Amino acid sequence: MKISSVEFIKSAFEEEHWPQAALPEIAFLGRSNVGKSSLLNSLLGVKGLARTSNTPGRTQALNFFLINNRFHFVDLPGYGFARVPKKIKAAWGEMATNYLAKRIQLVLSIQIVDSRHEPTTLDLQLHEWLQHHAKSRIVVATKSDKLSNNELKKSMERTQRAMGAERVITYSAMTGRGRDDVWRAIEAAINDVGF
Questions:
Q1: Distance of alpha carbon 164 from alpha carbon 192, whole angstroms
Q2: Is residue 28 part of a domain?
Q3: Entry pTM
Q4: What is the radius of gyration, based on Cα positions, of the chain?
Q5: Cα–Cα distance between 160 and 119 in angstroms, integer?
Q6: Which domain holds residue 68?
Q7: CA separation, residue 45 to residues 74, 119, 187 (Å)
Q8: With contact defined as beta carbons under 8 Å apart, do 76 and 62 qualify?
Q9: Cβ(155)–Cβ(141) below 8 Å
Q10: Which residues pair with 12 in a beta bridge?
Q11: Strands 6-12, 62-67: parallel, antiparallel or unpaired by DSSP?
Q12: Residue 141 covered by a domain
């Protein structure tokens, strides 16, 4: 997809602050420090739009970006970061669950896992929740450039087995591997809805 415009719209902590526009939305979900911001930036070809950090847990709100004046990317808070106080962690979980459960504009959830590690219990729980609620979703394994081809093949087989996913898209923000595959899934999701 050709990106002609990217605009940060807002950070929303509560449902009443979600954008009212009837545009399709693509949600990005993943553990803290899984490479979510790098994935977003590389998909859009924009450096620094989604803030990357060496400190996991930086994204604390739902961040909405308007792409090509046609659809939104929604960056959800990372989950599973141990150093975040329990009260904040619970609020993040509630905020993300409300969004995923209620948002009619949501046409695709992109669940991001780290290709170097086996999916965690939280990864599996999120995947099961999306399946149970019949949410359109894909699984993207980031940081694939950090593994040899043999290691990556084994890792993808392990991830597919663990998550029961038909397909896991391998992705590298550094090399662009998987970028076209992710965009194809996004375009298909947007075109399938009558917005």
A1: 24
A2: yes
A3: 0.89
A4: 16
A5: 10
A6: 6-191
A7: 16, 27, 17
A8: yes
A9: yes
A10: 62
A11: antiparallel
A12: yes
Looking up residue 112, the CATH number of its domain turns out to be 3.40.50.300
In-domain check, residue 1: no
**pLDDT tens per residue, the chain (195 residues)?**
889 999 999 999 889 999 998 999 999 999 878 888 899 999 998 876 665 444 444 456 899 999 999 999 999 988 765 455 566 556 667 788 889 999 999 999 999 999 999 998 889 988 998 988 899 999 999 999 999 999 999 999 999 999 887 789 999 999 999 999 999 999 999 998 766
Backbone angles phi, psi at 184, to 5 degrees: -60, -45
- Amino acid identity, position 177: R
Tally the residues of the chain: 195
Name the packing angle between helices 179-191 and 36-44 (round to 10°): 80
- Cβ neighbours, 10 Å, residue 125: 13
The H-assigned helical ranges of 118-195 are 121-132, 149-163, 179-191
- The amino acid that residue 101 corresponds to is A
* Distance between CA atoms of residues 96 and 54, nearest Å: 22
CB under 8 Å to 143, separation ≥6 — which residues? 35, 114, 115, 116, 171, 172, 173
Domain count, the chain: 1
Q: What are phi and psi of 193, to 5 degrees?
A: -110, 155
